[in-house]
Write a structure and sequence with these properties.
The complex is a heterodimer. Chain A is mainly alpha-helical. In chain A, about 70% of the residues lie in helices and about 0% in strands. Among the domains of chain A are: about 40 residues, no CATH class; about 55 residues, no CATH class; about 70 residues, Leucine-rich Repeat Variant. Chain B has two domains: about 80 residues, Rna Polymerase Sigma Factor, Chain: A; about 80 residues, Arc Repressor Mutant, subunit A, CATH 1.10.10. Chain B contains eight helices and no strands. In chain B, helix 2 packs across helix 3 and helix 3 packs across helix 4. The chains are: A mainly alpha, B mainly alpha. At the A-B interface, helix 2, helix 4, helix 5, helix 8 and helix 10 of A face helix 2, helix 3, helix 5, helix 6 and helix 8 of B.
Chain lengths: ~270, ~180
């Protein structure tokens, strides 16, 4: 029994972390126990051997890739579209769905007023319009091609490009949806969920997001999808969430989050 | 980390600079694959960024980061179940001043030790990596593994014992 307790202290002793009194006791025991002395010698050889293994450094390009992702994330946040990193949504009252039709109507009336009484009767330059269209097309092309890249970092960049598109685009919408359901990398899936917020006005997209929740294998993605559905207050998703909340096979946190999501939807009715 | 949690996400660059090497080595010992390890490091920092609100003030960042790292590695292992981790190459031991015959012996021993480590069950390999290569204290390992400090003490000893058995068995095979 004493030998067993003493031997459990050998790694701490080899790491130099044993306090003085414990070390004294260990030494006293070793003086009288040849078996423990042999054990110490053998483990010491392996411990030292591990210490002589080199500690390779990562490729310096890794830092550059991380900074790129960080910058893209900050840019996404700055444009207000980067998603729900801070947990369940806390949006300014004007950004809540209930106020959006009112805001849209007010802006429309303001636009009509300004157009009729204030703006000069001059159209946009055809050159500028053409250039804007070309830039938009290039963004679409970059998004679609990056989303098909092998490297997860490139696909993440593809998702980031989609934020910069001025108008929702059907092809990009489908590519993002495909990424949510099929991308092998969890981060790409999470980012694609955030990016689809822009397209969530479409009932088909809402339906696809709700359908994606139970089939996802990553609890993180499931939680992100549920957060988005709560934010959209998509009541049609409630039956699927009820089912998930009661699914004994599902991850415990996912079930709890599904229950939370249902509660939030009921409160905002 | 508190600043990052509060929304100053640019500060994550400092944390990346400070900790990404240790995290990379942790993954490299677990996967024996540089490219995979680099991808997993990126994934950990992305999750830290995205789920920064789950960081509890007062928790040591390092322990929390390795908890995220463990989850990332577990997800990776589930996705790549069929793949068997094999050491990419036998990294040279730090032995610049040794005579050539001793260098050759050290290289051979290092290769065997690496093989023995790669053959360990993942949970035992993990405590050894944390204790020996990452130099984490038992309290910190306990916090990552969510167990008692006493349990870590026993696990590290048993893992080192098993590594020693495997290493000397390989040495014996080589000698015979």
């Amino acid at each position: 029994m004493i030998c067993e307790r003493v031997r459990e202290q050998i790694p701490e002793c080899l790491a130099g972390r044993l306090d003085h009194a414990a070390r004294e006791r260990l030494v006293a025991h070793l003086e009288t126990c040849p078996a423990c002395r042999a054990e110490l010698a053998e483990l010491n050889a392996v411990w030292r051997g591990m210490g002589s293994l080199p500690e390779p450094d990562p490729d310096p390009a890794m830092r550059a890739r991380f900074l790129e992702v960080l910058a893209a994330y900050q840019a996404g946040r700055a444009s207000g579209l980067a998603g729900q990193a801070g947990g369940p949504p806390h949006r300014p009252w004007l950004a809540r769905p209930v106020w959006q039709p009112v805001l849209a109507l007010a802006l429309l009336m303001l636009g009509v007023f300004l157009g009729r009484y204030v703006a000069q009767p001059r159209g946009p330059s055809p050159d500028v319009a053409q250039l804007t269209g070309q830039v938009e097309n290039l963004r679409q092309l970059a998004t679609l091609s990056l989303l098909q890249e092998q490297s997860p970092s490139s696909r993440l960049r593809g998702v980031t490009y989609s934020y910069q598109m001025a108008r929702p685009d059907a092809q990009v919408e489908q590519a993002l949806l495909y990424a949510v359901n099929h991308d092998s990398n969890v981060n790409v899936r999470l980012s694609a969920v955030d990016a689809l917020e822009k397209y969530a006005a479409s009932p088909q997209i809402r339906r696809a997001l709700a359908d994606a929740v139970p089939v996802q294998d990553s609890p993180l993605v499931q939680i992100a999808l549920m957060d988005l559905l709560v934010q959209l207050n998509d009541k049609e998703a409630a039956p699927a969430l009820h089912k998930l909340a009661q699914d004994a096979q599902a991850d415990n946190q996912v079930r709890q989050h599904a229950a939370w999501a249902i509660q939030r939807m009921e409160v905002s009715q | 980390m508190l600043d990052v949690r509060a929304g100053d996400v640019g500060k994550l660059e400092l944390l990346f600079d400070r900790h990404h090497r240790a995290l990379f080595r942790y993954f490299l010992h677990l996967t024996s694959n540089r490219a995979v390890s680099e991808d997993l490091v990126q994934e950990v920092f992305f999750r830290i960024l995205k789920y920064r609100h789950t960081y509890q003030p007062g928790t040591r960042f390092c322990a929390w980061m390795f908890q995220v790292g463990r989850n990332v590695h577990m997800d990776h292992a589930v996705r790549h179940k069929a793949e068997v981790a094999m050491p990419e190459r036998n990294w040279d031991v730090r032995s610049a001043e040794m005579p050539p015959d001793r260098q050759a012996q050290s290289r051979q021993e290092a290769a065997l030790l690496r093989r023995a480590l790669a053959a360990m069950p993942p949970e035992k390999r993990e405590v050894l990596i944390m204790s020996r290569f990452l130099d984490l204290k038992y309290e910190e390992i306990a916090s990552v593994l969510k167990c008692e400090t006493g349990a870590v003490k026993v696990r590290v000893y048993r893992a080192l014992r098993e590594l020693s058995d495997r290493f000397f068995a390989l040495c014996g095979e080589r000698a015979s």
